[in-house]
Amino acid sequence: MGPQYALTDWMALNRRFWVIAASIGAIVLAALGVLATRIPLTSEGFRTRVASALGERLGSEVSLGDLSLRLLPSIHVEGRDLAVHHRGRHDLPPLISVTRFTMSTSLVRMWNKDVQHVRLEGLTIQIPPGDGQDHERGEHRGIEEASKGEHHVSGKQVVIQTLEANDARIVILRREPAKAPRTWELHELKAQNLGANTPMSFQAMLTNAVPPGRIETDGSFGPWHRDEPGHTPVFGRFVFNDADLSVFKGIAGTLSAHGTYGGTLERLKVSGETDTPAFVVKVGGHPVPLKTRYEAIVDATNGNTTLERIDARFLDTSLVAKGGVYEVEGVKGRKVLLDIDMPDARLEDIMRLAVPTSGPPMTGALTLKTAFEIPPGDVDVVDKLRLDGRFAIENGRFTNREVQGKINELSKRASGRKRPPDGRPSEKDGSAEKGGPPRDTLTPVTSDFAGRFRLRNGNLELPSLVFDVPGAVVDVNGHYALRRESLAFGGQLVMDAKVSEAMTGWKSVLLKVVDPLFRKDGKTVVPIKIQGTRHNPKFGINFGELF
What we know:
single chain, six-stranded mixed beta barrel, 10 helices, 28 strands, 48% strand, rod-shaped
């Protein structure tokens, strides 16, 4: 055989060898592919590298339980018992803990550091308390530092396209370890575009504890603040539906609200509106439509809420308030403190809330300023509500005909106007034409009230109450029991007319003798007392004050 034949044979053999080798390689790769789809790959080194990378990104110590990997047909990672301890502090609960997680993506996406989907089960995020610095300064500093400086991670970062974490929890730990943390239960949580240096968008649904109701929210979260997780920025909007107010003793109604929030995890500014179509104070029992607009600051480190402004309106009455909801040392629950200003209110609207009658006992224009406090405790609102303020009523009229009749009679007698025994109008009182009814029955006398008040333990104290009708001024002090509706007042009646001029017939003649006893500075001053109930008040002279 010539050399050319030997060379030809060698080339043919070589081709056969590579064909065989390629076939064997293909078979091996196919087998490995089948194994990769069937058998998870586990490695202590792989688990350690993943934990180390997470710890570096979060500035924390990370521990990880089981971890497995499948390569084909796509990358699939499963892990368990993930725990992240902020700054390695094991004296605090883990910053992040996950019972089980899965990750899936393609080889091409992974090459570009792009993760398609992550699912977390048993996610709990527990934010440690801040350092107690000024909140306003800390809030702005946190937002700025989370977006630049040492909190900005250099280089191309892994981005998670979508994340799901149902039944997750966010817990804000307190500076005082003995106090219960603030917890939000997130039944549904979805997030998009999770990266180290950019905010992620999210949607969540959670149930508020008190008052109970469903909250739906969406917004942006991050970038993550590694040194102070509580300074991580968050912005969004919310809708709060079907909140049952009857969990607060003494009131009832179903509240809905919507609004926006922004700031950091530790401190959020919230602006919103509420609507309660049938708000009820149970002692009154009458539903009224209540709408409010508010601006508030929520301090998640202690759960306190500062109400910068509340504008509320029900029926024809409006009010402005500011204050807050604060925790009380050593007491379960929170207290509500407000400063309320009602420059343009209607007395009948307030009465409808507080008095259990078919109609308001009194009508008129009302102005009021008061400090408002509801202490914590499992007690009816009426029994624990505290008020301390001033009020004025203009053109007040009683709707009870008997009570208003007594007011009309008081004004008539105090002015010295009299009516003949037969009931016809006299010339002196200037009533209607002959044969017509007296003017007093056609035009009820209006009354003006002004004074101070204090409400404690369901008892309304009036240390100063001035009641003004044409011809007379009543200046009294005393108290009114809200539940028993009982009256106990004492003071004085100041009249234009003399005592004898306020009476008719033989009583008028007899009383001329005592006129000087009651006259002071051209006025008649009579010590009086008011007792009985709201339905049946009894007026009388306090003879003990005469001498």
